[in-house]
Specification:
Largest sheet: 7 strands, mixed
Low-confidence stretches: 1-84, 138-159, 656-660
Strand content: 5-15%
Structural class: alpha/beta
Length: about 775
């Protein structure tokens, strides 16, 4: 007990008393530690908080910066009971303060023993052990404090002392855990802790005894005009060397350079040479860093997946061609240099302004930024765009909601806005559609393809021999009608999974693969990989794409590949975009297990002639147009606080249930503009994705804010006997069973995805440009 109490005595406080101590003993820049033996209510308030909540804290990363936290608070009555017990103890202890203060720095063990004995008599059984255990695990529970602050948002300004005390004590115990503290001048003295907590982080107010030189307000850099770029030479230099993945990307950039330049000229004419703001953009390709393992680069020449590198090469090119100030990082060292990260493990924040308007990265890069930007990541989250192939739905993205409702996965839970995730295909309206490009044909090439097509030639989509396992029956049926070609990687011996009647070319360079596709009539998918770029490239070269139908659809509930991914999407075929947005005659989707259906499909393919086809959104011009619109118009609000009810964008006509647009709706700032909004109610059990698609529209989550009001229910003729607001990714929605209307409480949970048989969901649908589903008709 004595040792515990002595440790409490030596606790230093960033309180008025402690500041007074500093003014006496450390009047100028701190030369030595300053310690005072004061026992104040601040520490015991913290002890009460930690003790009463003790078992309800959970740690994430021991040793990290302490100021990221979550807690679930005890019931009010229980908390008050514990508080009364602690208060009684404190009252007895405070009566002994005079005796204690007279001891000063002496070693009067007799009087300390007497005081310790008195404390032992009033100490509830087990409390000492609890405090000791909590103290030992303080670094583990430290990462939960941020969410405590959020829970206590309304009172934190009135009761800052426990948080400051905790931060100060954490600094004393852990300042050597990260070199970044020493980088900012922390030397182990109490004064250096105070200076750091008041001048580098936000836990303490400015110190009166410090020389307070006014920090000049940094003006944002002047706006510059973005000018379309046709030369990719500087881009190729920035991409760098040393990895086969980077070499692949550079070859693609060179090969498509002329098409990008031509598309830029067309888009500039379409935009009527309007002034565009140049953005400062960082691209950090996290999955190619050595720290993430970089499993892709070694497989580039061995049949490994190339879809991610195709997309990243096109992202780099589109940002460069649009004329933005671009920096590229494929290592942590480069990331540190571009962001100005202090040396260390990322416990310290960035002190200067973020030198970028936008940061494009992936999930690996996002995790690296979290580790190395520390507290600054939360501050700068709104600048981040995450390239995410399969999409992230809001229910999985919202950390607290995902944890409470079973949506927590190894990905997701970043508390970003849904539109900050950017997908390869437009399958998740909650996210933004980034895409990629396929090579376009000129008229001469199109004519040559139509003349040189071999009617009975098929190419199989599958570079790895494992994809061919179990496909003998299907291939035998196809072989009755067609000559089958493969591009399966092998080193010395032909893969045994590939039947002898298949002509295997081995892994082909991109240009040779293009020539093969320009001859073939059919491109066949075996069901994997999902949603890659190859089927679009085959269709663009005049092939018909034959793919399997999945019944039941593949999802995280029934298929290992999707298990753990932050989406509930049900994939009906190998390539849903090709099935839904292109369709026959270019895309035929059948049940490969139904021999008759498969046989009929092959005979149909033999009869049909198709021309090369490429959706506009996958052309260079289409991608330039889409990304330009995002950069110039898309705004992400980093605040999670509800901004209040917006003005209604519609009115209800007298004695009518019809929706009418308000005459002043166009004055409300919004992108997409409110002129695109079409308010619908989904049937029970249907998501807004399907409800809008059934009406020939697209669900637009950016417009949810305008329909999350009581008037929207009235406009749709719902009679609300009750109106509630809660965190529910299905809200706003109407429950017919209870005649209740539910509003969304947290804007991060606005979601087009999700359905329930209990609710009819309110859906903010919008129109779209033909061939460009990401943009409404008035979005440019």
């Amino acid at each position: 007990m004595k040792s515990l109490f002595l440790s409490l005595l030596s606790y230093s406080f960033p309180s008025p008393e402690f500041h007074h101590c500093l003014s006496l003993f450390c009047p100028s820049p701190c030369l030595r530690p300053c310690r005072i033996f004061v026992l104040g209510i601040g520490f015991f308030s913290l002890c009460f908080l930690m003790t009463s909540l003790g078992g309800q804290f959970s740690a994430k990363r021991p040793g990290d910066s302490p100021f990221t936290a979550r807690a679930e608070v005890l019931g009010v009555q229980e908390s008050r009971g514990v508080l009364r017990k602690i208060s009684d103890m404190l009252e007895v202890i405070m009566k002994r303060m005079d005796t204690l203060s007279k001891l000063g720095n002496t070693t009067d063990t007799h009087r300390l023993d007497e005081l310790s004995s008195a404390l032992d008599r009033i100490q509830p059984i087990g409390l000492v052990e609890r405090i000791q255990a909590i103290a030992q695990n303080m670094s583990d529970m430290a990462v939960r404090v941020e969410q405590i602050l959020r829970l206590c948002h309304n009172t934190v300004h009135k009761r800052k002392e426990p948080v400051r005390v905790f931060a100060f004590q954490w600094m004393r115990a852990r300042w050597t855990s990260d070199p970044c503290y020493a980088y900012y001048g922390v030397d182990g003295s109490d004064c250096s802790f105070l200076v750091y907590l008041s001048e580098v982080e936000w836990f303490c107010p400015p110190l009166a005894w410090r020389n307070q030189t006014a920090t000049p307000t940094l003006k944002p850099p002047p706006k510059r005009q973005a000018v379309f770029q046709s030369d990719v030479g500087t881009l190729l230099e920035q991409v760098g060397t040393g990895k086969e993945s980077l070499s692949f990307m550079k070859r693609r950039i060179r090969r498509l350079a002329a098409q990008w330049a031509s598309a830029a000229r067309r888009l500039d004419d379409k935009l009527r040479h309007h002034w565009r703001e140049q953005k400062r953009i960082l691209v950090h390709v996290g999955f190619l860093t050595e720290e993430s393992g970089d499993v892709f680069s070694p497989k580039v020449l061995k049949g490994g997946p190339l879809g991610e590198m195709v997309q990243w090469a096109d992202i780099l090119t589109v940002l460069h061609v649009l004329g933005h100030d671009l920096k590229i990082s494929v290592s942590l060292k480069e990331l540190h240099g571009f962001l100005g990260v202090p040396p260390g493990r990322g416990s310290c924040p960035l002190t200067g302004p973020l030198p970028f308007d936008l940061i494009y990265t992936d999930y690996h890069g996002l995790q690296q930024m979290k580790q190395h930007m520390g507290l600054s990541l939360r501050k700068h989250k709104c600048h981040i765009r995450v390239i995410d192939t399969f999409g992230t739905e809001p229910a999985y993205n919202h950390e607290e909601y995902a944890t409470l409702h079973g949506y927590r996965t190894n990905w997701g839970y970043w508390n970003l806005h849904g539109q900050q995730y950017m997908t390869m295909f437009p399958h998740t309206p909650d996210n933004s559609f980034m895409g990629f490009v396929a090579e376009e044909l000129n008229e001469t090439e199109r004519l040559n393809i139509q003349r040189n097509k071999v009617n009975n030639m098929a190419v199989v989509y599958g570079k790895e021999s494992s994809m061919w396992k179990g496909k003998e029956k299907f291939l035998t049926i196809l072989h009755r009608y067609m000559e089958i070609h493969g591009t399966v990687y092998y080193e010395t011996q032909r893969p045994p999974e590939v039947p002898a009647f298949v002509k295997n070319h081995g892994l082909l360079p991109q240009q040779e693969l293009q020539q093969l596709l320009r001859k073939a009539k059919l491109f066949i998918g075996f069901g994997f990989p999902y949603e890659g770029p190859a089927p679009l490239e085959a269709i663009a070269n005049g092939c018909i794409f034959l793919q399997p139908k999945f019944n039941p659809p593949h999802s995280s509930l029934n298929h290992d590949f999707f298990r753990g991914k932050p989406t509930s999407r049900k994939v009906s075929s190998q390539h849903p975009y090709a099935e839904q947005y292109i369709g026959r005659p270019h895309v035929i989707t059948v049940d490969f297990n139904n021999t008759e259906e498969l046989d009929a499909a092959i005979r149909e393919i033999m009869r049909v002639n198709v021309e090369p086809f490429l959706p506009y959104e996958y052309t260079c011009e289409g991608m330039l147009e889409r990304v330009h619109a995002y950069i110039q118009n898309q705004v992400v609000n980093s605040s999670r606080t509800w901004p209040g009810s917006p003005p209604s964008p519609f009115i209800l006509l007298p004695n009518s249930s019809f929706l009418s647009w308000a005459s002043n709706s166009s004055s409300h700032t919004s992108w997409p503009p409110l002129s695109a909004l079409r308010l619908l109610a989904s049937p029970e059990g249907q998501s807004c994705v399907k409800a809008c698609r059934s009406a020939g529209l697209i669900c637009e989550p950016a417009l949810y804010h305008f329909i999350n009001i009581k008037e929207a229910f009235s406009a749709l003729d719902f009679q609300c006997e009750g109106l509630e607001s809660e965190m529910n990714h299905l809200f706003p929605a109407f429950s017919a069973e209870h005649a209740e209307c539910g509003l969304q409480q947290d804007p991060l949970l606005f979601s087009c995805a999700g359905s329930s048989t209990k609710f009819q969901r309110l859906c903010p649908c919008r129109d779209y440009r033909i061939g460009q589903v990401a943009l409404c008709r008035d979005c440019l």
